[in-house]
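User: Structure tokens for this complex, please. No commentary.
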Amino acid sequence: MDDVIKLDAANYKDLLKHYIDTQDEKSLYGVEQVSKSFIKNHILPEEIVNLHIQALAELYPEMSEKFQHSMDFLLEAMISYGLAHQEFQMLREKQYEIKSEISVAASMQNTLLGTTKPEIEGLDIGIVSVPAHQMNGDYHHFVKGKDGSLGIAIADVIGKGIPAALCMSMIKYAMDSYPEDSMEPKSILKNLNRVVERNVDASMFITMLYAQYLPCEHKLHYASAGHEPGFYYDAEKGTFTEIETKGLVLGVSSDAEYEQYELKVNKGDMVILLTDGVTECRDGDRFIESEEILEVIKSYEDLPAQEMVNKVYKHFERLQDFELRDDFTLLILRREV
Amino acid sequence: MTPQSCVTIQKEWDIVGARQLGRDIAKKMGFGTVDQARIATAISELARNIYLYTENGQICFEVVENMNRKGLVILSTDNGPGIDDIGRVMEDGYSTSGGLGAGLPGVKRLMDEFDVQSEVGVGTKIKAIKWAR
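Assistant:
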């Protein structure tokens, strides 16, 4: 590496000489290249000033002493910049390390919390879940029951990033431990509430909506633990209504009870479940209204559910300059026949 | 090894005195301008810590020589509050002066060798060496 520096140093001197004689752009372009090579080789600003001083002394041995002193003065002034530069360099490397650790954690999270969208005759499902940062604090899960029913959990940890993501793994494993035939929404929430209350820091809350779809009866049973209310789309009337929900967030009180609701789903109707990352999208400084979300959803009504959620996500991602402020999860369930 | 020469740090002005003495020794030892400037900056940092955080302390200089090289040793000694968590103050970005001061990591970078010993309530001893090239 020392050879590279020596070569660059010689080059610097020649370029300087040429520039002093001609003031041409070519030498300036040349010094730009040399400068990049210096940066690559971690040459500090004070060393470049020193190189300049030496080059001048060689080119102009008769240079005034006063001018020489002024250059030494400049060199002293550069020392602290050199230190700051080294510090930034170090912090940047550290940041890179942390980032790559988090990305390992994020892919692990995907493996741990992964769920597959089930194929159910007569039911069209679309789901999109995108984290604001690397790790997702939203969670959704599908469970196919032995009786042919479909369980859907959608949850949000109050908070973002790593702590929220860690918390979700716990929820997932608690849910996995329930027997498949006891999927009643209200009892699932009651059980989870106890798990969260016992195991999670008091400052952390989880909201969840648990729904169970019974394909034979075309009914949706659901219960909510303080979760963002979803919407119901009546295909015949072409209108949306907010799904009625009531229930305490998970982890607040150990003996919380949850109310269970029932919804009849007709042909072509849609159930829309989401997290507050969707409803709290922002257009500049303004929070969007839920009507705007519904309008966007309606405009893609003719598409399959998965394409709908993808298009809606793309719409709001663009509206927010491609920078999500919160984890975004949107689920659409449509009865086809 | 030459006898030590020391500067007591009480007033801000003493920092300049310590720099001057250190630079004179460095110049005499044949350090180049860049290294002289680095040594002076390291002295500043150490002397400033004494001036800001302790009642009383000293910066001393020593020339060490072994078979094939010569080095300038800066010794900073104080009987101030001491450093509780040395690992922490050696971390980049920690410097209490808000990143502008080079802090102890800066001193470590400016010099070739660096060692801290500190005891809370007793004081801090820092030894830093720059080898002449």
